[in-house]
Amino acid sequence: MAAHLTIASLANPRVKHVVRLRDRNHRDRHQQFIIEGYRELLRALESRYAVEELFICPDFFLGQNEDGLVALFQAAGTAIIETTPEVFRKMAYRDRPEGLLGVAPQRHCALARLVPGNKPLLLVAEAIEKPGNLGTILRSADATAADGLILCDQCTDLFNPNVVRASTGMLFSVPVAEATSEQALQWLKSLKVAVLAATPHADCGYTDVDMTVPLAIVIGAEQYGLSRQWLDHADIQVKIPMLGKADSLNVATATTLLLYEALRQRRSKPSLPR
Predict the structure, then answer these.
(1) Which site among 81, 175, 246, 268 is 20 to 30 Å from 91 CA-CA?
(2) What is the percent of the chain where pLDDT is above 70?
(3) In angstroms, rounded to a whole number, what is the distance separating the alpha carbons of residues 176 and 172?
């Protein structure tokens, strides 16, 4: 399907704008971000996430499905812009571009817009520092059918290109709300959702507590862990056994363990005493 426009100049204002979207200040000023790669764009489309512009470079396409995806975006009203390889390489965030890069509006969701079920499994991420970890956490939340992720006092921008990439597009499938820790705590308490915090100082192992109740698993910064605010208000504290020399796990790895334990209990075991 023919593109609406072709760009061959590195000095084109649209090209410069896309390059600057790598910077958080520019993203926030324009309330936009970039989605790069076939898989990520496909999942944005499947989730009906609006993409305003789609830059394409057929020279970089990896397979036979790209043309069909471009046609679907064009049918959805996305502006299709073809570029030369040199221009696309300048815009691309990845070392090995796939010839597909979208520009999309940021969506910010308040707590009130989250709709948890009767026995929700929620995830609260406080001050996560590394984009790759946040993206991996989103993948695990999707894989375990978590009802939503609440970002509290975030250090990492949800719309960082590395979050989009590490999440493999799950940024578009997992409901994400943004709030302060105080707001999140009040909201969870109002819904009678138990707060579970992982800490090496807990007495109980993470497999020894009931995760079949309405539950919010709270995870903290890689370097410092959870703040006192969350630890002091947690209904349940658990520890993950550390049998070697390391004293902690990567935050995304720990999150995945906790989410899958909650899923295991909910699928196959009766409630355990708390």
Answers:
(1) 175
(2) 96
(3) 9
